[in-house]
Amino acid sequence: MRYAAAAISNLYYNMRLRTKLILSYLLLIVLPLGILVFFSYVNIHRTVVQQSGIAYLEALKQAEKNIGFGIQTAHLIADQAQSSYDIQLILKTVAERPLTVSEELDYFSMLNNRVMNYESVQNVVHVNYYMLGSPRFTAPDSNFQHVNALRDEAVLQPLLKGEVRQGWYYSGDFTHHTFSRMNEMIYIKEIRDLNVLGKVLGYLMVEIDSKFVWDILKDIRLPDGTVIAVHKDGKQITPAPLGSLNLNGEAALQKLLLSDQEGIMPYKSGLGENYAIRSIVPGLGWNISLLMTEEHLGMNSRWMINFMVVLAVIVSVLAVVTAFFISGTITKRLMKLIRLIRHAEKGSWETDTSVRGNDEYSQLLRAFNKMSMKIKELIEEVYQVRISKQETEMKLLYAQINPHFLYNTLDIIHWSALRIQARDIAEITESLAKFLRHTLNGGKDHIRLAEELEGVERYLHIINYRYKGAIRLTVSIEDQVEELPIIKMIMQPLIENAVIHGIRPKADKSGEIKIRAWREESYILLMVQDDGAGLPPERLTTILEKESGGYGVKNVHQRIQVHYGQDCGLQFENAPGGGCRVIIRLKHQAES
Prior knowledge:
Blueprint: H1 2-13, H2 17-83, H3 85-96, H4 101-119, E1 124-131, E2 144-146, H5 157-160, E3 166-170, E4 184-192, E5 200-209, H6 211-218, E6 227-232, E7 235-236, H7 251-257, E8 263-269, E9 272-281, E10 286-293, H8 294-297, H9 302-345, H10 360-399, H11 401-419, H12 423-440, E11 446-448, H13 449-467, E12 471-477, E13 485-487, H14 492-503, E14 511-520, E15 523-530, H15 537-542, H16 553-564, E16 569-574, E17 580-587
Parallel strand pairs: 1-2, 12-14
Antiparallel strand pairs: 1-5, 3-4, 4-5, 6-7, 6-10, 8-9, 9-10, 11-13, 14-15, 15-17, 16-17
């Protein structure tokens, strides 16, 4: 992820300004426009889906009403049979005693005429009377049968037991009874004695051709791929022309179809959102479901998304054209400034006096003109200074003779002291000469740690002439650390600070200075510790902030941070048991 971010960052910074401006315009216009189109489409699509669902639900409700009108015929036939005096007389007589021949002829003629009238009504396929008695005109295949023909049907048991008085059934509900046509709707109603409360005289069965129901459902204008499912008591009764459902793996849909819910209900099918628009036909108890995908319901939103896409494309093209025009006007002026800068790189300090306006570009061009004129003046001054510099360099060459003259003079004093047996003078002169050589070091900034410690020893040797050898020096260095390169003259100011502020304030003016050097990971750590008077707490916090009269510890701390970084430098603290301790932290660097 970090490399990808770095790659994108490099690509951005290497991109031309005009390209950046064009991309910025596109991001500021096209991206919000795309988001607006997307969310607008989502809202419009959702609204269209809802409104389409409501429209199909209303169409389904109207189909239910039409189906209701179609089944009213069966109810009218049953009501007429229930209220007919002749039917009451026939069924009561048949149930109570055997009929005479003349009665059988009269009753059969009367019932047959009624049945023929009923079966001439549209959608009525067959009308059957089921009687408690068995006159000779009853037969298994005729319109007049004994009640026993119904007793083997499990679906009719509630009716035969008197738990219900009427009911609608489907031909597929019957297991023993046969019908003249498939997919018939069966209406059965008991005929009761009008004179004796609760006495059942027989049953009337009206067979209705269900084709009119499927025709009504097919008349609903549905998108291609819509499935119409009709269920009753958990069983699908939809005929083949309207399609059948495979509910394997469709637990959500199966649960929905077996419920008695009505309305617009979404359900998941695979990866998509589908909808079931459901309603229950009154009287029949049929659950009619229109199974549609979200695409079916949102078909009317396609023209809207097409319109919005076209509009977005037009706006995007205008945005690109505008971006090219505006970015061109900006970068054209900047290219002029870049040409002036490139000429300046070649030494031709040209200026552009035709500056108009007060925008950022105009201010930048004016600043460049001022800079160009100033540089011209500085170039002229440099030519004047060059002659003076050459003269100064000659003087510096002569000044280089002075250190060698000083070394030679100290060497003469050293040997003269040895001739007169003044060894103290000879030793201090030799120490001073070597300390000065260490300090100058041929102009180099870096020396080995061993050379830095040697210079400290020479310096302390000179100081001990004043303190009559009362200051002792202990040095402890880890293996191979003494060969590491460090910047020179960082320990001598600390030794001087330890002598002046630590040991000299003591009554006997004597003490010990310990130096320790070791390596810790990529750092070189040096410790300078004395057993002197120590530093007051307020002095510890300000010792690296206050300027000293000469080359003090603040200067050393700043030099270390310049060479090695802000995590290096000096750290002062009072040592346990008395005295002051200084930790020097340096980074290990290969010697150049």
